[in-house]
Amino acid sequence: MSAEQIKVGIAELKTCPPNRSIITNGLGSCVGVCLWDSRTKIGGLVHVMLPDSTQSRDSVNKAKFADTGIPALIDEMTKLGASPSRLVAKIAGGAQMFNFPDSANKIKIGERNAEAVKAALAQKHIRVAAQDCGGTIGRTIEFFTEDGRLSVRTINQGEKFI
Amino acid sequence: MIDYSEITQMQMDVLREISNIGAGNAATALSTMLSKKVDMLVPNAYIAPFAQVPELTGGAEKEVAGGYLVVGEDMPMGILFLVAKDQMSFFFKVLLGSELDPKSMLDEMQQSAFAEIVNILSGSYLNALSMFTQMTYSQSVPALCVDMAGAILGEVLMAIGEVSDYALVIENTFITNEDQLNGYFFLLPQPEILEKLFSVLGVS
């Protein structure tokens, strides 16, 4: 795997050709959604920040929201030759980084993000093959299109593959 | 309603000036707290798209300490103070006489000291803002987190994420004789109050 990693930032989405890897650093309450077509080995990743675009007045950036980001990623992957019916998903993130004593803040946004991601995937009939969601830790994830492995790295708990 | 991306040069200058005074107050407060001379550089203030924000603080995966608090009613906004974890010894050496174990989390004393620093810094900022706007601000107790910068920023930016793709970042550098500390202040006024804020500041 000599080719460089493809980097995805907050509220961005990108596709990944076969035999490469795609990475997003520092997922907190955001959710990283990796989609993969095992036959063409085309992959993609969207770094979802918020659950629902209908709450937004300005939803220019589809990748920001679960309900628009996932369909947008599927479209991009289909353009490259992936088949929507073959896609499987691996997801990680949806943690809660800050613990506020008062509940006036948008509580459990991480949890809501993860739920919204699963709902959006279910709507597109995409199976969640593996997930690592929740907790209070930041995660860096790297997805390998060669075999569909997802690496999840944290600061204090090392690296694992799901 | 205006978006962060539409903030003009002149409005940025005003924010920069407030930051300058706020950071000046903060440096004075830090000097008193640490019993040593603390200077500062003129703050940098800029508008950056979300995806670039973690890069400004050394990358999304860099381990940082963040203190986040919310400011109430009239001018709802969030304030985040971020500092690289390895730079925190700047505080702890002087304040607590303790070194920071890079492998471990902050202990209770260190957390409490960091929360106090965040309190003082944000209080200094809000005083400066108060002076310019003739409004009073009440701040919450800071919530703390030590983890990847991207993880912390993602959760904080989400507060304005429904309406904006940009954040307002103020970079402060504090200097003592032996150390230099780069701290990042994120002022996150709810986008719907930006107009009001600039209007009371006379630059709408």
Question: Characteristics of this structure?
Answer:
heterodimer, A: alpha+beta, 60s Ribosomal Protein L30, Chain: A, five-stranded mixed β-sheet, globular, B: 204 residues, alpha+beta, seven-stranded antiparallel β-sheet, 6 helices, 7 strands
Task: Describe, in plain words, how this protein is organized in 3D.
The complex is a heterodimer of chains A (162) and B (204). Helices cover 18% and strands 35% of the residues of chain A. Chain A is an alpha+beta fold and 162 residues long. Chain A has a single domain (6-161), classed as 60s Ribosomal Protein L30, Chain: A. In chain A, the strands form 2 sheets. Chain A has a 5-stranded mixed β-sheet with strand order 1-3-8-9-10, with no helix packed on it. By secondary structure, chain B is of the alpha+beta class. Chain B has a single domain, classed as CheC-like (Chemotaxis protein chec, 3-Layer(aba) Sandwich). Helix content of chain B is 42%, strand content 25%. The longest helix of chain B is centred in the first third of the chain and has 26 residues, at 9-34. At the A-B interface, strand 3 of A face strand 3, strand 5 and helix 5 of B.
CATH architecture of chain B: 3-Layer(aba) Sandwich
Q: What is the average per-residue confidence, as pLDDT of chain B, rounded to a whole number? A: 82
Q: How many beta-strand segments of chain B?
A: 7
Q: What structural class is derived from the secondary structure elements of chain B?
A: alpha+beta
* First-residue to last-residue Cα separation of chain B: 11 Å
Helix percentage of chain A? 10-25%
**CATH fold name of chain A, please?**
60s Ribosomal Protein L30, Chain: A
How confident is the prediction overall: mean pLDDT of chain A? 90
Q: So what's the oligomer here?
A: heterodimer
Compute the number of helices of chain B: 6
Give a quick account of the main beta sheet of chain B: strands, pairing sense, barrel closure.
7 strands, antiparallel
Q: What is the CATH topology of chain B?
A: Chemotaxis protein chec
Distance between the termini of chain A: 19 Å
Question: SSE string of chain A, helix = H, strand = E?
Answer: EEEEEHEHEEEE
Task: Indicate the radius of gyration of chain B in whole angstroms.
Answer: 16 Å
CATH architectural label of chain A: 2-Layer Sandwich
